[in-house]
Specification:
The chain is mostly helical. Helices cover 67% and strands 2% of the residues. It has a two-stranded parallel ribbon.
């Protein structure tokens, strides 16, 4: 199926693994795919930006989600010792480049595999492309595939961040059909 994906859509699939590893997860979930899609120029990122979203805001929303990630627990533990994780992160980024602390945490880990909700989103993107008669799957199709799975954490994060998912879906669909 990936042979029909445009280069940015393939990059989003690869970046979703990075997002999962960055979050300390051993599985790629729909929220990692959402962050990866948002991190690339295209119809999906444009529609999400118009909806008033940002990758940073979505990451923060996901950290506040139903179960805190390891990074949140580490920050609390370090804070109890008088260590500000944000200050450490800024110093590390300044010395070694953006994301260096996250990259160090990921070293030596196995490559995250796609969980059911992420696979369903990818399959949904393919179905959207076929339904619309498109030969290629773009980041916009990927966003539609995510939005078509209403019970995933990605959709919950979008909603919690204040996005109108129906309007977002309509906007990205308009962008996809206009580009075809």
């Amino acid at each position: 199926m990936l042979e029909r994906f445009t280069s940015p859509a393939r990059q989003a699939v690869a970046d979703a693994r990075y997002e999962a590893a960055r979050a300390g997860q051993d599985k790629v979930h729909s929220e990692h795919l959402l962050l990866a899609v948002f991190g690339l120029p295209g119809q999906a990122a444009d529609a999400m930006a118009v909806a008033g979203l940002s990758p940073e805001r979505l990451r923060a929303q996901l950290r506040r989600g139903t179960h805190p990630g390891a990074a949140d627990l580490d920050a609390d533990a370090l804070a109890s010792l008088g260590i500000d994780l944000d200050a450490v992160r800024r110093a590390t980024d300044a010395a070694f480049g953006p994301g260096a602390l996250d990259l160090a945490r990921m070293a030596g880990r196995k490559r995250p595999q796609f969980d059911d909700d992420a696979r369903q989103a990818l399959a949904g993107a393919g179905r959207q492309g076929m339904r619309l008669g498109h030969r290629w799957i773009t980041t916009g199709h990927l966003l539609l595939g995510i939005l078509d799975q209403p019970r995933n954490r990605a959709v919950a994060a979008l909603t919690d961040a204040g996005a109108d998912t129906a309007a977002l879906r309509a906007d990205v669909l308009r962008r996809i059909t206009a580009a075809a």
